[in-house]
Amino acid sequence: MPVRKIAYCVLEKTPAVVIVAVEGMLMYFATGVAKSVFTQINPLCAAWYRFGFLAVMMLAWRRPWRREVRQTLPNTRRDWLITAGCGLAIVAMNTMFYLAISEMNMGMAVAIEFIGPLGVAVISGRNWRERIGVAIAAAGVVLLAGVSIASPDGGSFLIGLAAILVGGTMWGIYIVMGRKVAHAGSPLNRLSVAMCIGFAAQSLFLAVPAVRGLFQPPASATWLVDEGAWGIAHLLLLMLVVSVLSSFFPYVIDQVVMRKTTPGTFSVMQSMYPAVAVGVGLMFGEVPGIGELIGVGCVMLAVVVTFSGDEHASNRSHADLQASMDTAA
Predict the structure, then answer these.
(1) 138: how many CB neighbours lie within 10 A of its CB?
(2) In whole angstroms, how far apart are CA 197 and each of 56, 86, 91?
(3) CB atoms within 10 A of CB 33
(4) Which of 274, 282, 84, 92 minimizes the C-alpha distance to 195?
């Protein structure tokens, strides 16, 4: 059986909430690794390398220049605007997140960033489970954010706060735009183009300083300087691994999950991310306080309430997803 068929079967049979939980653990473990790179290169430049590797991987996989793939790409101005908006939201969200976690605890940043998905859930929720789930999640996120503000953990906290608020807004826009891309047909092909548009926009501002940073590292750099050419290779390899775990896999998987859930359910499901980030943060020495643990409990309860009545996607969505996976050959 082809690998893409196996992947399709696994993703279809696995509950969406489990997929998102595993995705979150991979994402924030990679984020913890990325934070170690910030001593070697500016966080914004690190974000450029992460997204650059992602764009290259998506292009190599989907090959949008092929005739059969070009036929699945946007063909109206509206579709191109949606695709471009998705790509720009993704790159802005990730760039601001890296800037924020360079100034604050990772769990704090994720909690505050959830203002975006929470806003989407409030606007799009249609049944009592989603609304109750959103209310509980809001209590947890507000508590986590309050603890974060009370304990800034050093750094230029206001810069980090401003960055994560922008990132959270972009996260909400990504959920809206990404869902439209997911339901447009051949979403992975369109996502590859969205990534390229986002990377091109990001490169206008960060390409030159990112490349210069490898050869003129900041004073805080250690192994990047000591290892010479190997230090550059070391850093690039780390960012490639980070890109695979925190970008490539999550964004491809999101296109599957978005087709299995409603916008509100998807948003509340992602409310477990602050809890996951705090848990992963333990591995990197970020010990949560009592207030953070209570907030985590609220977030997890919101997920249980929301998904106790979740239903499977329609047969049409299954067929559309299978078709989109088949175009990977």
Answers:
(1) 20
(2) 12, 9, 9
(3) 16
(4) 84
Q: What is the pLDDT of residue 199?
A: 96
Helix, strand, coil percentages, rounded to 5, for the chain: 80, 0, 20
Q: What is the DSSP string of 20-64?
A: HHHHHHHHHHHHHHHHHHTTTS-HHHHHHHHHHHHHHHHHHHH-T
CA dist., res. 27 & res. 270, Å (int): 12
**3-class secondary-structure state, position 327:** coil
Residue keyed to tokens 């369109």 = 190
Q: Where does residue 185 fall: left (phi above 0), alpha (psi -120 to 50 degrees), or beta otherwise?
A: left
Tokens at 61, concatenated:
């996989």
pLDDT tens digits for 183-213?
777 778 888 899 999 999 999 999 999 999 9
Query: Could you give the C-alpha distances from 207 to 50, 101, 140, 277, 318, in angstroms and in order?
Result: 12, 21, 38, 29, 40
- What number of other Cβ atoms are within 10 A of residue 285's Cβ? 7
Residue pLDDT, tens place only, 243-289: 999 888 887 777 677 667 776 677 677 777 887 888 888 887 777 77
Distance, CA of 133 to CA of 165 (rounded, Å): 22
b/e sequence 301-319, b meaning 16+ C-beta within 10 Å:
bbbebbbeeeeebeeebee
Give CA–CA dist 160/52, Å, rounded: 23
**Residue 62 and residue 9: Cα distance in Å, rounded?**
20
Those residues whose C-beta lies under 8 Å from the C-beta of residue 308, and which sit 6 or more positions away, are: 129
